[in-house]
Design brief:
This protein is of the alpha+beta class. The chain has helices at about 15-20, 45-50, 55-60; strands spanning about 1-5, 25-30, 35-40, 40-45, 60-65, 65-70, 75-80. It has a 4-stranded antiparallel β-sheet with strand order 2-3-1-5. It has a 3-stranded antiparallel β-sheet with strand order 4-7-6. Strand 2 (about 25-30) and strand 3 form a beta hairpin. The mean pLDDT is about 95.
Length: about 90
C-alpha cells in the first residue's frame, strides 16, 4: 500500500482535499497528520491545490517504508509503491 503523510495544518488542507478526489485514494487522520493512502500510485497536481511553492515543497512529512516519492516538482507530487524484500531476506 502506498502511504503519504502530511501535517494537518490549514496550509496543507488543499493537498489532502485534491488527493481525496481520486476514488482510489483514501484520506484519514493519524494524530496530527493526514494519512493519504492507496493501493497504487498517489498523484496530486500542484495547480489543483492552489498551493504556493513554499507550502508545496514543505508539505510532505513522510512516506511509508514501502512507498517512494518519484516526482515532487512544480507540477505534481507522485508517490508509488515499491516492493520490499521478504522478511528475513538479505537487503
Amino acid at each position: 500500500m502506498t502511504a503519504l503523510y502530511v501535517l494537518d495544518v490549514p496550509e496543507n488542507s488543499p493537498l489532502a482535499t485534491v488527493a481525496a478526489r481520486d476514488p482510489e485514494v483514501r484520506v484519514d487522520r493519524i494524530g496530527p497528520y493526514f494519512a493519504i493512502t492507496a493501493d497504487g500510485p498517489i498523484v496530486v497536481d500542484r495547480r489543483a491545490t492552489g498551493c504556493r511553492h513554499a507550502v508545496w515543497y514543505s508539505a510532505v512529512a513522510g512516506v511509508a517504508r514501502d512507498s517512494r516519492i518519484v516526482q515532487h516538482d512544480k507540477d505534481a507530487l507522485r508517490v508509488e509503491p515499491v516492493a520490499l524484500p521478504p522478511a528475513g531476506a538479505p537487503s
